[in-house]
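Example 3.2
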Amino acid sequence: MSRRHLSLGVILLGICFLLSLLISISAPYVRVFDIVRTSFDQAGGVSVNIRNNTAAAIREAQSGNWNCVETGHAYRLDVGGQVVDKSWTRGLVIHPIATAAILVALVLSFFTNLTLMLVASLVAFLGAVLILIVFAIDIALYVRVKARMKNVGGRTMAGPAFWMTLVLLLLVSVAGVVIWFVRRRAKAKEEDGDEDVKAKKEEKKRKKKEKKEKKKAEEKTKRAKAKKEKEEHAEEVREEQRLKSKERPLEAKDGEGEEGHLEGKEAAPVVDTEERKKETWYSRLRGNRGTEAEEKKEKEKDIP
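Structure, written as tokens:
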């Protein structure tokens, strides 16, 4: 869509450049594109035309012969004592200046760079302003020549270049608007592309963040699970230790009872009662801190 609009702008500027070029070169190279034309009827039915072009005034006979009455920038026209001063033709030089501006806009319109497209549209608008100014000068020249040549019986009319300037003004304005519109759409599309790229980056960043958070959550779950398993294992170990601690006293008591029972069974017939009494009595004496001699003496007394 934008390429088609850009091609339209280029085509319009190309047409404008050709029209402006034909108006600018004019006489003596292209006599037909005159701005103001005045016809005179002379004796014998001979008709004479005075063509006011951008850089010359031409006298053309009905037979086809012609000659430049005045040439150059800001020429002076004198017909039958009716004078059109240089001040009325001095502004016609804006025609070639406008042609140069249109050429610059045409060259810049081939580029798709946003900055160059902006410059092309601005130069096209500048060309339109120049054409508007020179068209006003053409109107003033037409009014002046018509007023002067009327005094000598001349019939003044606007020439082809006059109407070509009007068409040129419209076409250059449209071309500038088209290029501006194309640039605006291209800029909007580029901004949308930048937004899409930015959105993709944000989406990628968000996914990366979600993945990182998910990984952290998984690691946290694993740590919690491992901690729980460790606690359960420690609880099992403590439970086993408690069970073992409960079983050990029972085994110790059972072992002591069995040993005492066996010792009682084995010692009953062996141990002498009198000997046990003596040992008990000796131990009591030791408890009363008696001397060994006394113990020995007392022991000897008791022995029959």
